[in-house]
Please model this.
Amino acid sequence: MPNYRIHKTEYIDETKRVSFKYDGKTYFGYEGDTLASALLANGIHLVGRSFKYHRPRGIVSCGAEEPNAICQIGSKKDLTEPNVRATELELYEGLEASSQNCWPNVKFDIGGINNFISPLIPAGFYYKTFMWPKSFWKKVYEPLIRLSAGLGKSPTEPDPDIYDHKHVHYDVLVIGGGISGIIAAKMAAKNNLKTLLVDDKKILGGSTIYQNNESIKIDDKLSSEWLKNEIQEIKKLSNLTIKTRTSIAAYHGYNFLLAKENLTDHLPEEKKKNKIRQRLWKIRAKKVVIATGSIERPLVFNNNDRPGILLSNSINKYLDYYGVTCGENIILFTNNDSAYETSISLHKKGIKNIIVDLRKSASSELIKQADSLGIKIYFNHVVTNTFGYRKINSLEIMKLSEDGNTTVGNKIRLSCDCLGMSGGWTPMVHMHTQSGGKLDFRDEDQVFLPKENSEDQISVGSCNGDFDLENIIDKTVNKINKFLDIDNQDYQDTKIICSKENDKRNIWLLPNKIPLGKTKCFIDFQNDSTAKDIKLALKEGFRSIEHVKRYTTTGMATDQGKLSNMHALGIIADTAGVKMGTLGTTTFRPPFTPLTFGTLVGRNVGKFFEVVRKTSIHEWHVENNAEFENVGQWKRPWYYPKNRENMHNAVQRESKAARDSAGILDASTLGKIDIQGSDASEFLNRVYTNAWSKLAIGKCRYGLMLNEDGMVYDDGVTTRISKNHYLMTTTTGGAANVLSKLEDYLQTEWPELDVYLTSVTDHYSTASICGPNSKKILNKLFPNLDLSDENFPHMSFKEEKLENISCRIMRISFTGEQSYEINIESRYGHSLWKMCIEAGKEFNLTPYGTETMHLLRAEKGFIIVGQDTDGTMTPSDLQMDWIVSKKKFDFIGKRSLYRSDTVREDRKQLVGLLTDDPKEILEEGAQIVSDVKSKPIDMLGHVTSSYFSPNLNKSIALAVVRSGKTMKGRKLIIPMENKNINVTVSDTIFLDKENKRLNA
Amino acid sequence: MFLINCPFCGERDQSEFSSGGEAHIVRPKQPTELSDDEWAEYLFMRKNIKGVQFERWNHIHGCRKWFNVVRDTSNDKILSVYKMGEKPPVNYK
Ligand SMILES: [Zn+2]
Model:
């Protein structure tokens, strides 16, 4: 096996050999490696296939910007993870990774055929090709795309890992632990500011930490040695927290940031167990220092995507940090000085290399150094083509014309096994722009930079466009002193020697003799968009960068265009003949690198996902076989199946029992608001449509509450307990909103009212007993209570003791039966319920759930707010004009009841529907029409509630129908998928219109 | 994510609050006197300014008090907070 690890470094522990599997084959690396460095040490460059053309692709970078080396980790159904960048994944014993996007395998790839038909796959090809014929989409295109262009596989079983959230507050947050971040953190912490320094790598130091060029020195030491000393220093600072393997995912307003800390991803399987995998930090910082550095740009030339073509600085890092060389015969292609550092470093380790430089000449210290070492430099030359299928084996260069627009002279063919490219540096301004900051364009080196720094945020170092070391240190120190309003002198005498870049030449799309249409000059490696695609988009009329981006999919892959956005902009600017700075950039959206769902969700999984509210009687329901329904956060018994009954049969049985003898419902979930104060009656007058002043103490009244727009908002019964004391009930789902709405009016519109509201929903449990035998059961429970209709009539209230515990009993009915709601303090709810069941045994007292409750009330035509109403129904639409007071001067929503729109006669109005076939049950939500022949069919309304009534032995339904009030007796049609159902409009009350049962 | 200075509790995270839209829209004292247009003006019309805007906020997961906020919607900076019933600060327009 080849070994490209050619020298020892302090970051690779060669005493700790690590075995790992890649695409099923076992390899070895060392502790300290990333998967990418270990693969390169084994001579493996080819790591995947491109998305559209399925071209072989190799490792390009050494960091978060990696577009190609994307892999799937593990194969377990619950733990496998897609889209992991091999350049960031730390190697551990037993790691199993596979290349993505290369079915059936990386070496023989069926999708590679796309490469030969690529003229057929132009920009916007997904929009163009797959639009026609329509029927092909589902059967042909989609499965084909999914199969051959998959971006990894999601786990199919729940994630067993533990994730955590942490909230922290700091005076100063420093993002990025490179040289400028370290200086900033030290200055802040030494000045007694509580400081947090985060860096996404395993160790601090950024790219300076492996810098070993003799011409770059700080205080007469190699810059890397100097920085190591600084790191030792800051580790001693007590008010500095350092978090490595931690990356900022999002920078929100008010200096609120989210960071992801990786805790176990670098550990072998057995050491991961029972530990927190990742932690989401929610950081509030008074001040933020952004020191996120910059990333190297590729160059755009024909066939710039072959395996073995990397960013020049990445070659340097693999060499000096990991001890791995990316080739033995390397060519560096550059437009700036930084590739020379790589070249010199390679040369010193005995790796043959030559430089192709776009610039006509250059004269910095680094260039003199390379020259004196005898490194061959081709100035004013450009790479025009590369060769080699699975890995680069040679390339062609040509001389550039004076203006750089064309090539001149003869091709020179050079052999190589690796090409490093450097198109300059792009400051990482993501954090600045995510926080809302604007950018300026600097023409001199074609970079976008933070425009202004606010008083609570600053960018320093190369993310602010300061590239040479002297600039970085001096400017960082000055800016931080000013930003934090301190006077730190630590770096005043620091002596810096560095090479200064004097010459620049930037060409976004490099010239070529071959027509552009026949080249493959890749801009976005992951999404396979080329310079040709960008030009085509412009030709087709796209101008905005946001549109070009979407049309060509440039910058839309998982790397979010970290390497491609600048080139796309540059080519657009050049083609359109405008200044790049005027184009603006695309939006940098969080997260900076992908986040796992686990990190976002944290501990809020399983039973912690959402709050579950249970009544005090819940255990009884469970023991008695109840099926539950979610109503808001509440678990409510839905029905109680007996002897394997299905839902229909259970509901029929429960409904019949409630009307024939007695039924009991757990009504504890209804919202309960305690209202007290000398203006309580006036308050109710204002919030309900009906009048409340004359309600006698000990009486109950039903009320309808509107929004200010006149639409029904909530309903419920309110009881007058004493002169200035009422108990309001609301719907189960509306309780919290009703309380908030009432508080809003009290605090903001009517602060003069003496009214106090308290939610007592959870304080009382409610057992509601209904049916012709309910009175008898009540009598057993409360033998001293006079239950006669004279003493305790319908819509009244009594307070009575059950044993020693006081109960509030309301004689109110939502079923049309004689009915009592017994309220007791919640801790006694379970006992009360059991006593009711015991007392009701001889009367076949049947527990019923929400479904039966809905059926029973529908028989009586009582509405359910939210089911029969949808925020567009007025009381009149519901045929409930009787509840709207004509006399009251004002109440919430009153004025809206006679707006021109609310008095329209053709509004949708609540009606009853009876099916011609009494056995036919309508579907809730079904459309209602009068004529199915004329097209388009005129929709009149829809069914809101529908049941089979066992008490009437026929199907009944409520519906909203246009002009429904005038339609009683009309025949209408419910068109269903396979038949039309004939119905007749009826009254909304189906049972006991005379209310005889209330007093039976 | 804003930090909002509740006049009753102090600075708290935005997630504790709910927004109640434009402030200083007074409910008409005699709605029945209003024309449809006048009532619609109260009911539906909101300014939705880009720039300095007066808003109602409720510390719904805290003290549950309503109060007013002056916010620049162009940069989300909260310029001032004051209690219900208090006059808006004069230095903002
Ligand atoms: Zn508060």
Remarks:
- The two ends of chain B are 25 Å apart (CA to CA).
